[in-house]
């Protein structure tokens, strides 16, 4: 892909101007980054959109930084959140990143002549003094913060807004200032936060910073296909479950999926989708599985989907030990890998044993029990 394609495909907006960024990229190699807060133990399909855009810049020879928000992750980004996020401590945040390098190495190149870099924003934010914070925060107003949609809705619903949430865009802006980047990449829901970094760079360094906002991968209701909307696909999943998860998305996500997560030619694709949506969705799932797990995983993943979901002949070949109760037994196989998520699924009637819905979280699984967890996990008790 050339500069024009990278700055067009899957891009919602470029600020302050696309022409300015083209001119800069044509004159020299730029430094760019995207930040990822470790609020969960795994990256997810929504994160893959940003990773794929970073890879495109890396292929053009630009300096790419994958920034882990181990400091900002303790605050929690309030963007699009109608309630405050659960606060995490440093230990929880660091633990969540344990598998990240392995996951992002499937997309970004950390070797060769132009290796991507991993940085942590605690490296500089931990050192900021209260005086530093006052100096930096004086470049923003309460009005700027309060007019954001999610805060306005919270006020109307009498939901609390914490001062730490007001400071989140400032903390994210400090990242741009400290790394002195030319460009920040993020989803279109991150524009406000990304522009905070532009403000700080212009104020303290007298230099420009560009913002590239990617389109969001959304479902039929306009909700992000990501970790917090209930339809998440995590990168620590199996290729079979990831493939099946993509096939569960509504047809309207096929075209944006190809645009955001592949380099496939989009010419004529809309007509192909209209004629054979299932076939094109399988092709999309195959492309993504190939990128993340290799071509050898594509055919088994397709066979698993067709046998399990199209022919409705699931294989209960994931053997598990009983942990006393149903909730404890299935917890590792839920989306959040937690007991609370297991209890939620059981209460919602999304867990079956021997084809019967079980709503008793304290049910004691027996050897030979075949347990269906949600739509994609099929377990057999040893």
TrEMBL record:
GO annotation, biological process: tyrosyl-tRNA aminoacylation
Q: Which domain of life is it from?
A: Bacteria
**Catalytic reactions of this protein:** tRNA(Tyr) + L-tyrosine + ATP = L-tyrosyl-tRNA(Tyr) + AMP + diphosphate + H(+)
Q: Which residues form the RNA-binding S4 domain?
A: 326-380
UniProt keywords (A-Z) are:
Aminoacyl-tRNA synthetase, ATP-binding, Ligase, Nucleotide-binding, Protein biosynthesis, RNA-binding
Q: Name one GO cellular component term.
A: cytosol
> Which EC main class describes this enzyme?
ligase
Query: Which residues does UniProt call coiled coil?
Result: none
What GO annotations for molecular function exist for this entry?
Answer: ATP binding; RNA binding; tyrosine-tRNA ligase activity
EC numbers for this chain: 6.1.1.1
Q: Name one Pfam family in it.
A: tRNA-synt_1b
Which family does this protein fall into? Belongs to the class-I aminoacyl-tRNA synthetase family.
Q: What is this protein called?
A: Tyrosine--tRNA ligase
């Amino acid at each position: 892909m050339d500069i024009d394609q990278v700055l067009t495909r899957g891009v919602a907006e470029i600020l302050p101007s696309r022409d300015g960024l083209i001119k800069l990229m044509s004159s020299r190699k730029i430094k760019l980054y995207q930040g990822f807060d470790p609020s969960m133990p795994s990256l997810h399909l929504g994160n893959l959109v940003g990773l794929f855009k970073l890879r495109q810049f890396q292929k053009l020879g630009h300096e790419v930084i994958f920034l882990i928000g181990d400091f900002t992750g303790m605050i929690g980004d309030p963007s699009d959140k109608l309630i405050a996020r659960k606060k995490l401590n440093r230990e929880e945040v660091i633990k969540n990143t344990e598998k990240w390098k392995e996951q992002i190495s499937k997309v970004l190149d950390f070797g060769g002549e132009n290796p991507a870099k991993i940085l942590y924003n605690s490296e500089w934010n931990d050192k900021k003094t209260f005086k530093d914070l006052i100096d930096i925060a004086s470049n923003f107003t309460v009005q700027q913060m309060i007019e954001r949609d999610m805060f306005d809705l919270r006020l109307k619903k009498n939901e609390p807004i914490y001062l730490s949430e007001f400071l989140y865009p400032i903390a994210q802006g400090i990242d741009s200032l400290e790394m002195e980047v030319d460009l920040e990449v993020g989803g279109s829901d991150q524009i406000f936060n990304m522009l905070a970094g532009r403000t700080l760079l212009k104020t303290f360094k007298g230099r420009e910073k560009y913002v590239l906002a990617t389109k969001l991968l959304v479902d039929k209701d306009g909700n992000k296909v990501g970790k917090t909307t209930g339809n998440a696909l995590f990168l620590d999943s199996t290729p079979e479950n990831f493939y099946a998860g993509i096939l569960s998305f509504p047809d309207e996500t096929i075209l944006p999926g190809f645009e955001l997560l592949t380099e496939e030619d989009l010419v004529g694709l809309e007509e192909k989708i209209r004629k054979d949506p299932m076939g094109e969705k399988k092709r999309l799932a195959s492309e993504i599985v190939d990128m993340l797990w290799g071509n050898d995983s594509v055919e088994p993943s397709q066979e698993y989907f067709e046998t399990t979901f199209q022919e409705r002949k699931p294989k209960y070949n994931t053997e598990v030990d009983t942990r006393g109760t149903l909730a404890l037994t299935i917890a590792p196989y839920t989306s959040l890998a937690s007991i609370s998520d297991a209890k939620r699924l059981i209460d919602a009637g999304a867990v079956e044993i021997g084809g019967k819905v079980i709503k008793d979280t304290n049910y004691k699984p027996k050897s030979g029990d075949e347990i269906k967890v949600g739509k994609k996990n099929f377990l057999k008790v040893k």
